[in-house]
Amino acid sequence: MSSKDWLEKDFYAVLGVNKSASTDEIKKAYRKLARDLHPDRNPDNKAAEEKFKATSEAYDVLSDDKKRKEYDEMRSLFGSGAFRRGAARSGNGTQFDPSDLFGGFSGAAGAGAGAGADRRFGGTGFSDIFSSIFSGGAGPGGAGAGPAAARRGPQRGRDVETEVTLDFVQAVRGTTLPLTLRTPGACDTCRGSGAKPGTTPRACPKCQGSGMISSNQGSFSFSEPCRDCQGSGSVVDEKCPECRGTGGVTKTRTINVRFPAGVADTQRIRLSGRGEPGDRGGTAGDLYVQVKVRPDELFGRSGDDLTLAVPISMAEAVLGTDLKVPTLDGPVTLRVPPGTPSGRKLRARGKGVVRKEGQAGDLIVTVDVQIPSDITGEARDALEKFAKLTPPPGRERLDARMRRAG
Ligand SMILES: [Zn+2]
Ligand SMILES: [Zn+2]
């Protein structure tokens, strides 16, 4: 069963229970219907057979807590008008192409901020469900209708999510970037009606302007969006040339977004009220910016500390040395004490992420002692002399174990 079916079918009505019915009530209702409608009892009764099937389908969803929850959420989301911004017949609403919802919606940015965008719906995972509805061939606007399309209260604008990629240094220091957001809005030429200026949409003759078609089959009643007007309740004879009758256009707006010093890869920044504007006096949605940080070829990051690996020679490790290393603010010199083992960490204080509040991370330098694999000539002679002069480290405990093992 496709998700599209879910939108069009009222499983509660099919089972004759109300929306708050308990699992037991649902089971009872189903059992009774299944008994009454069973093909054995209704031989050659096509209508009973259809109802029997519809009953099983409804029970299949409503008896499964998880499916029922998804179904309820989907119906309420759909019914709340979240997917339509007023019908054309409201005069000032917006019809829009559902494809705007899921694709072709991109935030772009200047100054090195690559961006792609999509929108999410509060983590409910419904975008998947809805994209399958929208791709289900219902035609443009086919998903638009719902019983609650008639709801006329203020509607909060949708949240918008966009993605921005920052350079490593931009993320460490913080930066402000202009983000260009494309969001669907009402066409100014026709004020969202989709009708050519000077003409007005007329009530859909099929559904008499209600946007819904109801049909009764015995004791069952079904409501579904009118297919002639895609549930908008109105039909347009002469299409608006600007939006080609959709009533919606893509609007571009640019906002400056400040990324604080130390913003991290995968961090999500919420900008309250910078999402889509609300409808009919509703508040605006929020803008979520998903941050990606491009790695640096040298530096790594660990929280507010920067990290850097520096190769040193065996002799430098043994004798000690002053090591000049780069930081984001120019080179610093670190003292490598004599007898430094490979892997030791040295710290350049305050050379990490500097927060606005004042605290700062460090640059942590890890020394990596290089062992020559090929040593010849005088260097080899010198090392052999060194080897003679320095006995190998004591391995008494290992020797003892080997003796014990026989
Ligand atoms: Zn228009
Ligand atoms: Zn209609």
UniProtKB/TrEMBL annotation:
SUPFAM superfamilies: Chaperone J-domain, DnaJ/Hsp40 cysteine-rich domain, HSP40/DnaJ peptide-binding domain. Residues 174-252 form the CR-type domain. Its main location: cytoplasm. Its cofactor is Zn(2+). It comes from the Bacteria. Gene3D superfamilies: DnaJ domain, Heat shock protein DnaJ, cysteine-rich domain, Urease metallochaperone UreE, N-terminal domain. It is found in: Cytoplasm. Belongs to the DnaJ family. Participates actively in the response to hyperosmotic and heat shock by preventing the aggregation of stress-denatured proteins and by disaggregating proteins, also in an autonomous, DnaK-independent fashion. Unfolded proteins bind initially to DnaJ; upon interaction with the DnaJ-bound protein, DnaK hydrolyzes its bound ATP, resulting in the formation of a stable complex. GrpE releases ADP from DnaK; ATP binding to DnaK triggers the release of the substrate protein, thus completing the reaction cycle. The J domain is necessary and sufficient to stimulate DnaK ATPase activity. Zinc center 1 plays an important role in the autonomous, DnaK-independent chaperone activity of DnaJ. Zinc center 2 is essential for interaction with DnaK and for DnaJ activity. This is Chaperone protein DnaJ. It comes from Actinoplanes lutulentus. The lineage of its organism: Bacteria, Bacillati, Actinomycetota, Actinomycetes, Micromonosporales. The gene is dnaJ.
